[in-house]
Design a protein that fits this description.
The complex is a heterodimer of chains A (225) and B (795). Chain A is of the alpha/beta class and 225 residues long. Chain A has one domain: Rossmann fold, CATH 3.40.50. In chain A, 35% of the residues lie in helices and 29% in strands. In chain A, strands 6-7-8-3-9-10 form a six-stranded mixed β-sheet. In chain A, strands 2-1-4-5 form a four-stranded antiparallel β-sheet. In chain A, α3 runs parallel beside α5. The longest helix of chain A has 17 residues, at 174-190. The mean pLDDT of chain B is 89. In chain B, α2 (17-45) packs antiparallel against α9 and α14 (419-454) crosses α22. Chain B is elongated and about 100 Å long. In chain B, the strands form five sheets. In chain B, strands 4-5-10-7-9-8 form a six-stranded mixed β-barrel. Chain B is of the alpha+beta class. The chains are: A alpha/beta (225), B alpha+beta (795). The interface between A and B is medium-sized, with 30 and 25 residues.
Chain lengths: 225, 795
């Protein structure tokens, strides 16, 4: 479903190329649950952003769901992104001025769902995540774990094929983190969502089906579980 | 989608109350200024459009070209009317009139007496100007020469609730006129205002001097109006009428008269003529204030832009999140624009309230009756477009700027508002302050010009000096009146003349004088026929020679000239020289030279004037004795006037009031410029206040560190204020030459004008900087007083 070929990402610093990703190639099949690990600065987040089309690589070829992403225009890329990808952040990144319900609903608005459809879909996911009672609260009124739950619900609301998570449990305590990981596993197994997560925790990484270790912008090792 | 945008916008407004208040207040003030100016401009453009066919209506004017000057006048001779009627195809109606509106007459009904302005007009006047009749009809009203038409207000004043039709009005206590029509009161936005109309035939039958007017081409004492046939344009008619006076009148030929048309649509706004074409007039002020309105609105929009982009760090995360969950840039642009339109909408409601509150005083200052047309759907449509326009204008820059953020950097938390954003912000602040400072400079210069002209020596003393029209029996009873006034003790001196102190009604031509060159033209000279004691009563002083004596017979061949006249004809030793003018049959002797007195515009040089001793006159002037109570004196004088002129109400003017009226336009411009300058600087400072708050907030940590390192409050204040003061200084440098250029142009209107010195620019800069310092010091000192421990710990 995803193919990265010879992807590089670098910044020019006083004439020198400072590589964040260096000639990296990666194939991801549908239904995989990949954990990306590596020390700080090894390019984990950048790789995730490139996969999520939030960041452009400097070089290389990027194919996603049969499209050559590196050749697409901003608008087409955005359409592709909206249709296939959901993003979960370490810092949750909910919109403070919107309620739980409205935060989850927002992606649907951008995808032009009708009001009645949106209602049904949001109600459905609130129920599934067991946060119906919190739907009218604002993010500031929730705990970190609850906020991340809303973040994931928002990422999943439009039924993406792929979920990208950048240290989703980084700001959570271990119990909350475990719950989130269980949820990811369930999503991956039951709903066949392809998941790519970046994590520092060995334990969380093992929820995945494959662990990729990055070092200096290159894949140092990759093992299937 | 829109609902979602508005919801967020609304919550954002509530969450940031101070910021929202600054934005809404600033926008509301700016919109109110533009709205009130807009209403005024619409009102100005609505003049003279209340009659059907107004597009086909014209006043006939005459343009002259002499060696020294060219000018256009409305005064025409009657024979032209007949020629236009009979010989020019394409003209539907022609009406000759006197100075409708300016002819004051006494209307008497029983004990009620009114002294009001009206005029005499040919019956076709009512066909040209289809004033709506409440009673009677345009067709029949002027069938009988001894008839009169009134407007509703005058009819009510004379007859109360009784039916005025066919009632008799005693006209100037001499003729009986029958009321044959009542027209609706003329709206305020009409150039031609009058209370009554009589048939032109009545004037011709009852006023002796009119006998030869119908056949005399040189008696230019009348006005004329025409209506063109439908489909006929002024351009088609112009060449046919241009030379009519030239062809018909040999005597008029030296002045090269050209007949021209002045469209009714142009009467109000384009009344200044140059080379026989209406080139400008009040439209200049309409344009000027339109520009000011737009500038003030722009200043308000800039506030919104600057505060929105300054706060962008706070909004950046939201932008990042939205992009990460599938928003396109266009969605975000739409969202931010929706937000600015919502804020503008709220501001517009406030602006309507502001305008409603300000309109009474505005109307008093302007002398208008402007109201917000709440019942007019067009107004609401206009308001809606106004809100959209302002919202999009104010929101465009923030929308495009904010929506451009890269989600990755924003969400990583490494995002900092770059220098790139602060440069345009600085440019916009400079733009704001340049406009505000230019307005301050303008206000100061307008007031300087007014003061300059007001402090000009008038050449007479207006203190306690009063004027009353020489109406009814006053001319016959003049000597008795004068004696009674003097003996009453409240009046110190009395005189009569053919013009009041503040105007010269008639101009004659000075044809011959010693030393006149063969090819030199006659001099157009202001002519005033005066009683004895005239110069003494007005407080004018003779430079040479002597005053008229009280014996009329001695003086029939004597005149007094003013200094300007002597200078104009270049006469040395003028006393006892003989000159010829068309006010006497033979040559007259100059017996005195009087110092120049400012009787016409206070902004032009004194024009040549000739004074001749004559009976009668149009005005009585009298000066109250010093130390009398004005109210009591007026009561006493009123009784004396009633005795000698019982049919007329006693009406008086104080000369200094009349003189001050000459500054009405300038004072108005000065007041408005002052108010708008004040508002502009207020709105600019509101924005600066917000920006200073933002900068102080952004630099909290830096300020904390500096304080720990030993910075004093003054150091911190300087640190935060320096940049803003620099911007205001740059604005001064930009505003000064721009204001200088425009004001220099404005001053060209006036012959008697100030020269603009550097003082006003320095003063305005000083004022702007002081206001700026007060505005930002609040924030700067607040930041400087913050305990550094607090601000550093919060990191």
């Amino acid at each position: 479903m995803l193919s990265l070929q010879h992807i590089s990402k670098y910044y020019q610093v006083s004439g020198l190329k400072n590589y964040v990703l260096n000639d990296l190639s990666l194939e991801v099949d549908e239904g995989e649950f990949i954990s990306i690990m590596g020390p700080s600065g090894s390019g984990k987040s950048t790789l995730l952003n490139v996969i999520g089309m939030l960041d452009d690589p400097s070089d290389g070829y990027h194919y996603f769901a049969g499209h050559a992403v590196h050749q697409l225009k901003e608008k087409q890329r955005s359409a592709l992104y909206k249709q296939y990808i959901g993003f979960v952040f370490q810092a949750y990144h909910l919109i403070d001025e919107l309620t739980v319900y409205e935060n989850i609903e927002t992606p649907l608005i951008y995808q032009d769902f009708k009001s009645s459809e949106r209602k049904a879909m949001v109600a459905d996911i609130l129920d599934k995540f067991n946060i119906v009672g919190k739907k009218d609260l604002f993010p500031a009124q929730l705990s970190g774990g609850q906020q991340q739950l809303v973040g994931i619900a928002r990422a999943l609301i439009a039924k993406p094929k792929m979920l990208l998570a950048d240290e989703p449990t980084g700001n959570l305590n271990s119990k909350q983190g475990e719950e989130i990981m269980e949820l990811f596993r369930k999503l991956n197994r039951e709903d066949k969502v392809t998941i790519i997560q970046v994590t520092h925790s060995e334990k969380n990484a093992e929820y995945g089906t494959r662990i990729i270790n990055l070092l200096d912008g290159k894949i140092a090792s990759s093992k299937k579980l | 989608m829109i609902k979602n945008y508005l919801k967020i916008a609304w919550r954002n407004i509530l969450h940031n109350k101070v910021y929202s208040a600054i934005n809404i207040l600033g926008l509301a003030a700016g919109m109110a200024v533009a709205l009130i100016i807009g209403l005024w401009v619409i009102n100005e453009f609505s003049y003279d459009k209340f009659l059907p066919n107004y597009k086909q209506l014209y006043q006939v004017n005459l343009h002259f070209t002499t060696q020294r000057e060219e000018h256009t006048q409305t005064a025409l001779a009657i024979p032209l009317a007949e020629v236009l009627r009979k010989e020019i195809p394409g003209i539907k109606y022609v009406a000759e009139t006197d100075w409708v509106g300016w002819q004051y007459h006494d209307l008497l009904v029983g004990t009620k007496k009114l002294y009001v302005g009206g005029g005499a007009a040919h019956p076709d006047f009512l066909k040209i100007f289809e004033y709506p009749f409440v009673k009677g009809s345009a067709k029949d009203a002027f069938k009988d020469p001894y008839s009169i038409i009134l407007d509703q207000a005058t009819a009510t004043a004379l007859f109360g609730n009784a039916d005025p039709m066919n009632k008799i009005i005693r006209f100037d206590n001499q003729q009986n006129l029958k009321v044959t029509g009542i027209i609706k009161d003329i709206p305020k936005n009409a150039t031609k205002q009058f209370s009554f109309l009589t048939p032109f035939a009545f004037k011709e039958q009852t006023e002796g001097w009119m006998k030869s007017a119908r056949t005399t081409w040189t008696n230019n004492s009348f006005n004329m109006y025409i209506e063109l046939q439908p489909g006929v344009t002024a351009e088609q008619i112009a060449p046919k009428i241009k030379n009519l006076v030239y062809q018909h009148s040999v005597q008029m030929r030296p002045a090269k008269p050209e007949v021209i048309l002045h469209a009714m649509m142009d009467w109000h706004l384009y009344s200044d003529f140059k080379m026989g074409k209406p080139v400008g007039g009040f439209i200049d002020y309409v344009r000027m204030f339109s520009i000011i309105g737009i500038l003030v609105l722009l200043i308000a929009c800039i506030n919104f832009m600057n505060l929105s982009t300054a706060r962008s760090e706070k909004r950046a995360r939201e932008v990042g999140v939205r992009k990460a969950i599938g928003s396109q840039r266009s969605d975000l642009i739409a969202q931010f624009l929706a937000e600015s339109v919502l804020i503008t909408f709220i501001a517009s409601l406030f602006s309507i309230v502001f305008v409603q509150l300000a309109l009474p005083s505005f109307n008093t200052v302007i002398g208008s009756s402007i109201a917000i047309p709440f019942a007019n759907p067009l107004f609401w449509i206009g308001m809606l477009l106004y809100v959209l326009f302002t919202g999009l204008l104010a929101g465009s820059r923030p929308a495009f700027y904010l929506s451009s953020f890269n989600p990755v950097t924003v969400l990583k938390g490494t995002f900092k508002v770059g220098k790139a954003a602060s440069l345009p912000r600085k440019v916009l602040v400079v733009l704001q302050f340049s406009c505000s400072i230019a307005l301050i400079i303008s206000t100061v210069i307008v007031y300087q010009q007014i003061q300059y002209a007001k402090s000009r020596p008038t050449g007479y003393s207006s203190e306690r000096l009063m004027v009353t029209d020489m109406s009814g029996d006053l001319a016959n009873n003049y000597d008795a009146l004068k004696n009674s006034l003097i003996s009453s003790g409240v009046v110190e001196s009395v005189a009569a003349a053919s013009s009041p102190v503040t105007n010269i009604y008639s101009h004659m031509s000075l044809d011959k004088w010693p030393g006149k060159a063969a090819d030199e033209e006659s001099v157009n000279i202001g002519a005033i026929f005066v009683s004895d004691n005239y110069f003494k009563t007005l407080g004018m002083t003779l430079k040479e020679g002597h005053d008229f004596s009280s014996k009329w017979s001695d003086d029939t061949t004597s005149v007094i000239l003013n200094e300007a006249a002597i200078k104009r004809i270049g006469l040395k030793d003028p006393i006892n020289k003989l000159v010829t003018w068309n006010g006497s049959s033979g040559p007259v002797r100059i017996i005195g030279v009087v110092k120049d007195a400012l009787m016409e515009s206070p902004f032009t040089p004194v024009a040549p004037a000739i004074f001749s001793h004559g009976r009668g006159g149009n005005n009585v002037m009298y000066r109250l004795a010093p130390n009398v109570n004005t109210q009591d004196a007026i009561k006493k004088i009123n009784k004396i006037f009633d005795t000698y002129n019982p049919a007329y109400p006693y009406i008086y003017q104080f000369v200094d009031d009349e003189y001050n009226h000459k500054f009405n336009l300038e004072v108005l411009v000065g007041k408005l410029a002052g108010v708008f300058a004040g508002l502009a600087i207020f709105i600019s400072c509101l924005g600066l206040f917000g920006l200073a708050a933002y900068v102080a907030e952004q630099r909290t940590k830096e300020i904390g560190i500096r304080k720990v390192l030993g910075a004093t409050i003054a150091n911190v204040w300087l640190l935060l204020s320096r940049d803003f003061i620099l911007l205001v200084l740059i604005s001064c440098i930009i505003a000064s030459p721009v204001a200088f250029y425009f004001l220099q142009g404005w001053l060209q209107k006036y012959d008697y004008r100030i020269s603009i010195g550097p003082g006003v620019f320095l003063l305005s800069a000083l004022v702007a900087i002081i206001i700026t310092m007060i505005t930002i010091s609040f924030q700067a000192i607040k930041a400087a007083l913050t305990n550094p421990v607090k601000s550093l710990r919060s990191e």
